[in-house]
Amino acid sequence: MVTSFVILILGFAALVWSADRFVYGAAALAKNFGVPTLIVGLTVVAMGSSAPEMMVSASAALANKTDTAVGNAVGSNITNILLVLGITALFRPLSVSSSTLKREMPLVLLISFATWYIFSDNYFSLAEGIALLIGFIVFIGGLIIISLRAKNQDDPFITEACDDVPNDVPTKKAVFWLVIGMVLLPVSSHFLIGSAVDIAKYFGLSDLVIGLTIIAIGTSLPELAASIAGVLKNEDDLALGNIVGSNIFNILAVLPLAGIINPSIIDPSVASRDILIMIGATFALIIMSLNFRGTQRINRVEGGLLLIAFLGYQGYIFSQVG
Q1: What is the longest distance spanned by two Cα atoms in the chain?
Q2: CATH number for the domain including 99?
Q3: What gap in Å lies between CA 254 and CA 66, rounded to an integer?
């Protein structure tokens, strides 16, 4: 069992590092081929934080662990809001000034309700997976069109996303890191899933629970690091944007992989418990961020409440084991 935990930790580390290198190489290569910085920032770079979730969900689905893949996507969204934002707000209250975020927050709630409807029959079909993926394509296309047409290009979220696009990277170097990422991403995710399954069996955890807990928390570590780094640099919209963007990608880009690769019956707890928690957390985020007091920020008290809610949710899940 110690070996499985070591492999799990190394797998997470390799997954996060290889995802970063993959995004770096892909973004630099796209920039070198003349793709506008705005488009690279809103696609390749913005998707970077969800790359670990995508690879883990794909690997889990290929291993016939669709519940783990679904749990990873749903659990990551819950973790992003309750744990990541909770801890980040405790560091420093988060101000909300980006019109992009204000526009996207209601969208997160809307697609969360759509996700609940999809899983209400406890089955994830190929058609439903494709529908979510089409929604992702429409979302990215719409975001790019709106951003290109925007008269005010000073939106902090867009500016920060574009600032993360690497400049002046030689094409050979970009290709090198792209290939390294492409090789290590599937390998690290394979070992991560294998060790997680071993740990789940040892402790009597279901495929869904292992996805909602250990894997979801592990794949959300990049969001935690990015969000804390953002608030420490007074870039609140970058911190919050990482969460909002990641949650949209998790539902529309990560979750579909499970249905497309391995359509199957899903644990009833997903619709009756976990997606409802995800919806509640999303609604709480909107209320805290776009409140009617005029301050439009998430304060430390609210951050503490989010963190307490996360601990309560995790405790409840493990209390149901066995």
Answers
A1: 57
A2: 1.20.1420.30
A3: 12
Q: Where are the alpha helices (DSSP H) in the chain?
A: 2-32, 37-40, 46-47, 51-62, 66-79, 86-91, 99-119, 126-149, 156-163, 171-203, 207-210, 216-219, 221-232, 236-249, 255-261, 269, 275-289, 300-319
CA distance 149 to 192: 42
Full-model pTM:
0.87
Residue 190 contacts residue 51 (beta carbons within 8 Å): no
Smallest CA-to-CA distance from 107 within 299, 249, 302, 317 is with 249
Residue 151 confidence (pLDDT) above 70: no
The CA distance from 95 to 277, in Å, is 24
| Domain total of the chain | 1
Task: Tell me the backbone φ, ψ of residue 127, rounded to 5 degrees.
Answer: -60, -40
**Distance of CA 108 to CAs 119, 151, 218, 248, Å?**
17, 25, 22, 6
Among the residue ranges 122-131, 274-283, 313-322, the one predicted with the least confidence is: 313-322
Residue 240 near residue 99, CB atoms below 8 Å: no
In whole angstroms, how far apart are CA 268 and each of 5, 112, 280?
A: 28, 17, 18
Comparing C-alpha atoms, which of 118, 129, 130, 82 is closest to residue 275?
118
- Residue 188: both structure tokens together: 């690290």
Could you list the residue range(s) of the whole structural domain that residue 288 is in? 1-320
Q: Identify the pLDDT of residue 265.
A: 95
Alpha-carbon span 37 to 192, nearest angstrom: 33
The sign of the CA dihedral 244, 67, 129, 133 is positive
Task: Please say whether the beta carbons of 272 and 74 come within 8 A.
Answer: no
Name the E strands within the chain. 94-95, 123-124, 264-265, 297-298
321 pLDDT higher than 80:
no
* Residues 22, 28: Cα–Cα separation, whole Å: 10
